[in-house]
Amino acid sequence: MLILVGSTALLTLAYSLKSEFRLAIGEFGDAPYLSGFNSDEPGTPRYRWTGGSRITGGQTSALVNFPFLPASGAENQVKIQVGAASAKDSGQKNPPVVAILVNGVEIGKAQMPEGTVSDFEFKVPAAALRDDYFLVELRSPIFSASGRQLGVKVQEVTLLTAPTIRIPPFEVWFWALVYTAGDGLVALKVVQMWRIRTAIFIATVAGLVLLVPLLAIPYMLPHNINLWYGPSNSTPYLVQVAAWVMGSVGVLAWVREIGNWLWEFPAKLEEGNLARTILLGFSALYVVYALLFIGQMDFIGHADYADNAVVARNLIRGNGLSADYAAQFYTRYDLPRPADTWPLLQPLMIAPFFLLFGPTAFAAKLPNLIIVLTLTWALYRWGTRYFNRKTGLVASLLSLSSPVFWETVAYPINDIGFTLFAFLGLLNLYRASQYHPLSGAAVSDTVPVYRAVPRQIYQWLVYPARKYWLWAGLWCGLLLWSKPSGAVVLVAAGLWLLYQKFFNREIRIEWKNLLLWGILALLVFSPYMARSMLMSGSPVNSTERYDVWLLEYTPWEHIYDLYYPDNRPLPEPRLLMNYGFDTVLKTKYTQFRDAAEDFIQGRYIAPVVWVFAVVGLFGLSRRRYGLLALLASGFVIYLLFINLYWHYEIRYFMVWLPWFYLLGAYGLGWLYDKMRQNENTAKIGKLGIWVLFGSFLIMTLPNIPQITDAGYTGKTGIVITSEWIKQNTPADAVIMTRAPWELSFHSDRRSVMIPNNIQTLTQLKPVIRDYKVRYLQLNYLDTGNSIWRERPALWKLLNREQVPGFNKVYEWGDFVVYEITDPNLLKEN
User: Fold this and answer.
1) 3-state secondary structure 130-163
2) Disulfide-capable partner of 571 in 327, 364, 549, 623 (CB 3.0 to 4.6 Å)?
3) What is the pLDDT of residues 583-632, one digit of tens each?
């Protein structure tokens, strides 16, 4: 604890004292801070040309990402040493003008001197500051020379600010902690002959003392050596290299003692409450960090993430399960309109938190935090029950360190609920099908009796075999609420149960239990079906029944084409014949290829987890083959449904991650148990335990930077723009936008999608008239972006050109809002 507190205090002090940060462009250590620059070149001092990448429309945009933030409330300045090529070398008639932006806000322009470098200083307005990063951008025209695209020559970029309290980035804090701990281990080896408490205290103090010169080095080095700490650990920095060196030395000093401890520790997990206590500690840490983290997030998320929050907000306002936007044009809506695209369980889970904490992005993320924790503890419980505590603990830690699950905490997505309910539903189905009552035991012998409930009814409900069928029915019903397409998993489970009933003589499955499971699942799901029947006459109503015949076969933007205003026929299966056999087969092949590549390359599951999952398969006892068959049948049928009917997205396979975690954890523990069983191989085993421990670290530690990615936090453009809309437009205003989901949530205004395939602004008239649109919001202001490719009518507005009838009322960075004043678009006829 002293190392933790002391290193945090020292590192915070090192960051907070800094009042000037000078980045020498082209000198050692500058690359991690830069984007859009060419390679460094010799000179006195060295320099770089902008234009290595990030080139659009004859302009280059070079970025400098500073490793710490300026002080708020202080007079902050950016100083730049920059110049242009001579007219003879560049062929440019006039010296270029460079626009300087901070965090997307322009703070000034400067005309470059020809053939030389000059200093330019710009004040940074408070409006440009953000609480998550400080990004300087240089925009300039480009010219060609020696086969390269060049902008301007940059030698130095400096931030002038004032000392202030700054929290260091997580990865810097982590490596400083490792460095300090390594120092402490070495010191402890030297003083270990003293009393243990005294030795630990002295070692800790020694580690902190040795941290001080490491943090002071960047202050003492010449300014043309860039050794400051941050902004990422993707490139070796002083603190990271030092941490690896001292950590390795510390471990080597204690390698025998650590090896002996690692050899005994997994076996101790099977005793007492050690495993549960460890998981409880990590769970508490996860909750605290998650609450702090999502508290800094302002963005609700895109599309279905935001839709869940919009529907939940309307529900607590008494508007039912409805949405404030129209994202597609298969039919004309009256806003707010019934939610008819995505599943409804997520809004229902969010609504109580909106009542408690208000309709905020923070409150919308809390249900999934609870679900991730529930899934983590479910993995521990069932991993312990079916395998051992080692398996349960490792699987649950893999769950907590999963960046895939963390993504569902950061954004209110329904896939994590589907994952939890599928996990519990399939487990209870398997447990129910495998249940064997004690030989000769009567029903009354296996359940307690409570006189408050009629004895026969109570015994019928809680009889162990039937109890598991009831739980399975409940979880499977909630599975359908979270994702109705998940019914294909239940179809696979049903086929597996029928096979077990007719061909597995070791177990007995009664028809009444199968019916109990199916009927209960349908009863739980029946309110959803009833609502859909009232809306469309179909048990499951979703606009995705039209999207399915467009997605992947055509560009995605086609799901936003105009249908009802043009009286076009709605998408239907016969479109497949119009696409042609070649297109359909190629599309389906691409789906399977993408799925295979993602799994093989470890984009969803780390390769080391795959390896130990295979080991776990070989180590499974024969009595677990039934569970394996249940999972395999569900996976295959689900894969075929997603790739043949719907379309592949990697997040759809989140539902199978808990099982891979269990198998990988079991494989890891199985190898350890095999080494422990043979006393003659103890020496070899103590070497092997290092391999297993290293494998566990590889499973978990690489995920931490993704979970701590600062890109999640801070203000986002759509939120800033939406807040302006909320404060500066009438409450009944309707905004046309490419992001109606998140804009509706953050602005609390009704919105409508910008239709696709718009050649002239006149084509917008039916939508503007029907929804009484008065504002147009645009972002991604690049006509080359694929979302605007079939919307040429908007290209002039995207380029911020004057268009009659569209009055620009707001601009921030890449976000623009126009007020529509064209009477030809607004009039009814």
Assistant:
1) CCCCEEEEEEEECEEECCEEECCEEEEEEEECCC
2) 549
3) 999 999 999 999 888 888 888 788 889 889 889 888 887 778 888 899 99
Residue 307 CA neighbour count, 13 Å, CB half: 19
Buried/exposed code over 589-620 (b: 16+ C-beta within 10 A; e: otherwise): eebeebbeebbeeeebbbebbbebbebbeebb
Q: What is the pLDDT of residue 1?
A: 66
Q: Rounded to whole angstroms, how far apart are CA atoms 144 and 90?
A: 7
pLDDT mean for each 10 residues of the chain (829 residues) = 76 81 82 82 82 75 83 86 77 81 86 83 86 82 80 87 81 82 80 67 78 76 63 63 85 83 87 92 94 89 93 95 94 92 95 95 96 96 92 95 92 94 94 65 47 53 71 95 94 92 82 90 95 89 92 91 90 90 92 89 84 87 84 93 91 92 92 77 72 88 80 79 94 94 95 94 92 92 80 90 91 88 76
State the SS3 of 194-226: CCHHHHHHHHHHHHHHHHHHHHHHHHHCCCCCC
CA distance 671 to 680: 16
Strand partners, 139: 61, 99
Helices (H), 411-463: 415-434, 443-446, 455-462
Tokens of 111: 């005309």
Residue 539 and residue 377: Cα distance in Å, rounded? 34
| DSSP state for residue 594 in the 8-state scheme | H
Structure tokens at 312: 């939940």
**Beta-sheet strand order (sheet of 775-778):** 325-326, 750-753, 734-737, 775-778, 815-820, 806-812
Strand 750-753 and strand 734-737: the pairing is: parallel
Report yes or no on whether pTM surpasses 0.85.
no
Give the pair of three-digit tokens for residue 487: 């019914």
Q: How far is Cα 772 from Cα 751, in angstroms, rounded to an integer?
A: 10
C-alpha–C-alpha distance, residues 315 and 353, integer Å: 12
User: What is the predicted pLDDT for the residue at 829?
Assistant: 57
CB 74 within 8 A of CB 163: no
Q: Which residues contact 685 (CB under 8 A, 6 or more apart)?
A: 263, 675, 676, 678
8 Å CB contact between 47 and 25: yes
What are the CA-CA distances from residue 634 to residues 497, 610, 620, 666 (Å)? 12, 19, 19, 21
Which residues, other chains included, contact 230 with Cβ-Cβ below 8 Å and sequence gap of 6+?
67, 68, 168, 169, 171, 172, 237
**Is-contact 199 268, C-beta < 8 A?**
no
At 274-304, the pLDDT tens digits run 999 999 999 999 999 999 889 888 899 998 9
What is residue 643's predicted lDDT score, i.e. its pLDDT?
Answer: 92
372, 403 in Cβ contact below 8 A?
A: no
Residue type for position 624: R
CB atoms within 10 A of CB 32: 17
